[in-house]
Amino acid sequence: MIMGKPTALGRVVATERRPNTPHEFHFWTSLDSPVGIGTIVRVEGRDAVNGVVPRVFGIVTEGFSWTDLASPMHDVMGHDGNPADDPPFQTTRSEIRLYTAAVLRHIPEEPLQPVPMGTVYLADETDVAVALRMDGYLKEGSRTGIPIGVYRAGGTDSVIYLDADFLLGPEAAHMNISGVSGLATKTSAVEWLLQSIFAHAPAQKGSVAAVCFNVKGPDLCFLDQPGEIDEADRRLYEQCGVAPEPFQNAQYYAPYKSDGVSLNTLRSNEQLLENVSPLTWGLREVLQYAEVLLNKDDVDAKADALIDFIKENVLDKRFADPMLERSHTVVSFADLDAWFKDVLRSLERKDDQSWRTHHVATIRKVRNRLSNISLRCKGLVADDGAASDLPFGSFEDRTVYVIDVAGLEEDAQDLVFARVVTKLREHLEKHDLGVQQVVVFVDELNKYAPGDGTETYVRKMLLDIAERGRYLGLVLFGAQQFRSQVHRRVVGNSGTAVYGRMDGDELATPGYSVLSPAIKTKLATLEKGQLMVRHPHFTQPIFVRFPRPAIMRGRDGVRQYPQAQSPSLHAAVLRTLRVLDASLTLGWLQDVTALATDDEILRARNDVVRTRPGDVRRAFAANFRATVAPRSASRSESVTPLPAVPADDPYGF
Amino acid sequence: MSAESLRRELAALLPGARATSGDATLELMSSAIDPPRLIGAGVVEDPAMMAHRINGAPTGGFRAFLDGTQRSRTVSYVGNVPIVHGVVSAVARERRGRRLHTWSVPLVEERIYAPRSLLGNAAWDALCTRFRDTLVDCTEQDDSAAHPYAMRDAAYHKVQADREVLEQRLAERWCSLENDALFVDGSISGSDTVAKSACAVGVVKSHRTIYAAARDLSVVLGLRAGERTSVFRVTSQKRTTVASWYLRMRDPAEHDPMWGLVRAEIAYADERLAERLAERANEVSRWILAETSPLALPDGRWDTMVYGIRDCEEYLRALA
Q: Closest approach of chain B CAs to the CA of A79, in angstroms?
């Protein structure tokens, strides 16, 4: 470029066999031009239309190269059939670089005509903004751009923005990311995008938080810990206007392990427990979502009726029935089991086959299935009915809530997912969640919302979010390895689609047929840190680079903060309580719980964690029977002598 | 101007004109082919014509290549008289970094060719008014000049001459501005300036005329790959004398005797400088042999055509 005058990169060509259309054109370049697949170019037309010389922006989607050889045989002849023979050619054979570009935008937009012959230039930063229609949402005063990365080609370095109205709603919403596993692309991209959203979400959109489900490994376990990034990443952060630091506000939730003592998470190192809370639910919470766990084949209409009866008439109420041996107040699985036993015993006693229209077989089946839940979800479901939950109602702006369900059974993961998302939706509908928008990140979407298989509660719910979430501020960020295996209404409703490196087999599926072979090849060989982005404003997919998140990677976190050894009951309880009151000691805990059973100790811990009292010592101790302080027995100084035995005592020896 | 638009224009200009259909060019249709001839040449290097092996490895010596093209077709008939549209062009392609680029500007001209004496004054005047300087009279003073083929051939020859003029003009420009060697496709003897220039080398691929006496023919046709004949002098009344020799570029085994045979022309200084001419012939031959790669395929004349000349033709095909 000489003094601001751009250098021509190529010229538009069209032949009868390869004509230009309003959506596609061809151009040739010199052999050393920096054009590649994904490069954005600008065409300056030659002739004015309605007094305006048309400008067309396009993105390179295919490239061709050939020489003036009519047949490969001619080259064979030129080398005498010997590939090792390299004759000292004085002249290099003529060669062409021909590119096909897909149109991004015409200016003026009307009349929409085939791309005219003209000169092709590399798009500069301003051109990129116009080509991608970003100029519409980057205006000062009404800026809704959220950086997703940097487009780079031939010296152009341009930040690519997504429109917040189309990423977080209400115009469109949701983001779906695909890519092969193991390249740290999907999770990294989501972490980066969340950071970018937190940094750039426009003020008029209000508060925003994120709920991330950690479904495998330690991927999301160290979002608040700094990670190493290099200078190139730092520059990308700077370009995008995002601080290169971990999330400032992150809260972790994890269920207990099956022993009920320690948390079932890879973030169990004592140094990191400050913002880790247990996630436990009681019977009430679980029964609301019983259908998530109960197989449709098992639970027919009759069983459904009994479960509804329990929910409405038994749960959390004093239940009395003349047939039963006693009245029941069911708040826990243990209470529920006692109630079932009483009902079944009473039926046996009366030799009756039904109770309140419910057949004994149905009662037995429902008992079996519900009791099973507490076993299948051990650690998540508390027998005592106590719940420790996400802070629905007091969510905080720019905070990430991570729910670590990686250690849970599949059913329990479904339950967590279903309940959390439903609660989020309920609170967003009532505008009392604490924030106006929530991004829900779900990995392995092909597992939760598969394109085939039977209808599940989780899939129905994901479909519901995908189709209606944008009106509520409930935004789904889904990730999966195989997009083709995800329900098409879920991916179809994602306004923004992001692709990391893709598997060749996946690219061969019909969903990718709109991509040119060159784009597919590029997708199959994308480096770490590169993404292809589709967004409603972009008429064609765009390739961007994003920085490695300044967040500790899962495997680094596990190495730096090793998992705590399985502690004794007292040590585990103390660890949990010391988050609330650092002055507590093991000796005090042992004294207070000296006469208590393990269940009583755990119940007391759960109670304290749930209520978070000001005086932790008193609140915890109040759960136990008062104990008399130990006192050492004293021997009396004078011992009264025994009466003397009479001499004539007949029993004397 | 496209042939189609010219046909429409002529139809408007000459009410009696009949437009022709088809795109066949005179270059394909013309019967004007020179008869084969043998012309004894004055050998200046040796006492008699003989073969010389070119010693030394082929080396690049040419900086540019020059060639011209022509394309002519009958676009209309006025009575039985053809109106021919001809386009001639020439270009020099300069080698920089092993790639060829256009030197200076290519020359392209188009003209209308018609025999004035057979066309009639009214039609000629109408054509003159419209085409002015680009109208060429191709009348031939011959008994059979009225034969449609003769008229067509006459036009073809005029187009050919115009093409040669363009080539010579461009070659003269090169010789006046540059000092490096220029590979000219065809003879250089048509222009005195070029023929006497030290930097122009003409390479003739067609051999309707062979400059050898009958007794020397076997030497010429018996050349093996990498051999040349003795240098001889080519003299013509209308052309400048040049030094010339035959060179076999490729092995003719299993081919006809002309396979890979070219005739090179350079400036002829003086018979007394025969030894220097021989050295120069060897040097230029090495340059020519260095141009045998890459092959000029798919052109059918690839055995004698060098890639630089093919590049000129391709360039002009795209341009004109």
A: 9
